[in-house]
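Extended Data, record SSD domain-containing protein
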Amino acid sequence: MIKKMLKKTAKFSEKKPYLTVLIIIVLTIFAGISATNVKSQTAFDKMLPQDDPVIISFNEVKDEFGGGNVVIVAIKLKDSDNSNKVDDIRDPRVFELVKYLKDTFEDSDYITRVSTPTDTIVNENNGIIPNDIETVKEIYKNLPDDKKRGMYNNDFSMITINLDSDSGDSKAIMKEVYDRLEGAPVPEGVEIIPTGSPAMGDLMGKLMGISQAYTTGLGLIGVLIVLFLYFKKPLSATMPLIPILISVVWTGGAMGLFGIPLDMATAGMGSLLLGMGIDYGIHLMHRYNEERKYGKNIGDALEIAVVSTGSAVFATTATTIAGFTALTFAPLPMMANLGKVCGLGIFFCMVAVMTLLPALIVIEEKYILPAIRKMASTEN
């Protein structure tokens, strides 16, 4: 049954290569559109089993009492050559900055509560920001120890503002925070650095995107070099790679369709598929070239290559998918996601190689190479 299906595929690709390519392109466009729906998963609680009592209780507490995400806005001293710089975080200009930030963040829909350490000193000064640093120092000195605790660090170089949020979208929270920080009256010698779980989640999301692009690009270059060294022809070296790149797009589309997020495990999907899937194309191209050397015409050589190689590739794909399927039963969601993505990806690699690569071979042999030879003979 498999051999009959592969034989029909080979014949269809030979007779209608352009139609085959067109169908693949249309499918890839739809997959690319679907891939735009893939969401980054950076929330640490979402990376743990959602039926675990700890996570269930965490979600209940968050639903009943709010919170769950705290952005810590660190206001720190920094080096500056300006003679008017702030050299002690107790400077009244920092109080003005903190008041501005508090008023700004309290107006945000993403922030449920703003906690500022300077409120205690302002309240002790009849609700007015002190005019000079000496007044601040005196008020601070007379505060009881329990009120001093956590207000400043030991060398008075940093204070923090805590922003509580009940949103689980780290990216949206941090966009709101950065937008609100723009235009803040930051005095010389002071810098503002947001941190906390949402900030780290947002950073993780950015790094996952960068890592995915970097590893896929690096893998692509490495595979191209190996293919060129093996086939010694630019066109032949590129063709086995095209179906694998197509399968990467299809896998992204499947992730968007089935709601599989981009997390720390699935971020390396592109380079994994390049490394695992390229074997299929190399085997098919090698067998086809062998049959052509034996004197077979394009159709016969393609049919033999697809049927013989395809049977082995089908078995290899089935065993690989079986191995990745085991990951889907892992208790960690991101490990299960990796199993789903790799299983789907390796299946798409097989389908793309067995359908698209034969069509590309026919187009090269019947149309591109004759056109190149004709151009060369015309020039001579």
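Summary. The first helix runs from residue 2 to 15.
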